[in-house]
Amino acid sequence: MNTMTPDERNTVNLFKAAVNMIKTGPDGFPLANQGLELAVAARLALQVTRDCLRRGEPDAEQRSLMALTGTTSRLIEATYDGNRDPAIPEKWFRARAELVEPE
After folding, report:
1. Are residues 95 and 71 in contact, defined by beta-carbon separation less than 8 angstroms?
2. What are phi and psi of 61, to 5 degrees?
3. Residue at 20 is within a domain
4. CB-based contacts of 39, cutoff 8 Å, min separation 6
5. Burial environment of residue 28 by CB neighbours within 10 A (0 to 12, 13 to 18, 19 or more)
6. What is the span of the domain harbouring residue 45?
7. Please, which residues have CB within 8 angstroms of residue 40's CB and are 6 or more apart in sequence?
8. What gap in Å lies between CA 23 and CA 31, rounded to an integer?
9. Beta bridge partners of 24
10. Cα separation, 87 vs 18, whole angstroms
11. Which tens digit of pLDDT belongs to each residue from 12-61?
């Protein structure tokens, strides 16, 4: 089992909260004027990714977290570079729905 430290668990919980704060429009992309929310989510996504990679072989929860951090980063990048590929938010919503909770 790959038990997280209390600090790592706190970072994961903050990341999940940050993801839930992102409001999206009908196209699935974040609505305008959410720079702070996106910046916080991006920073926490990076930290969660680093924490998961440091743990070695990921368990189911960590694999699902890595999927969510990756799709969150892609969604944020696409928001700023104007890439409105509908597959990007679709993958993000799927990763959110498939998030595995800790045992």
Report:
1. yes
2. -65, -45
3. yes
4. none
5. middle
6. 6-97
7. 18, 21
8. 6
9. 30
10. 21
11. 999 999 999 999 999 999 999 999 999 999 999 999 999 999 988 899 99
Q: Which helix (H) or strand (E) holds 97?
A: helix 87-97
Q: pLDDT digits over 52-102, tens only?
A: 999 888 999 999 999 999 999 999 999 999 999 999 999 999 999 999 998
Whether residue 102 is contained in a domain is answered as: no
| Structure-token pair, residue 5 | 């430290």
Domain count, the chain: 1
Assigned domain for 70 exists: yes
Residue 103 lies in a domain: no
pTM over 0.70: yes
Amino acid at 36: L
Q: Phi and psi of 3, rounded to 5°?
A: -65, 135
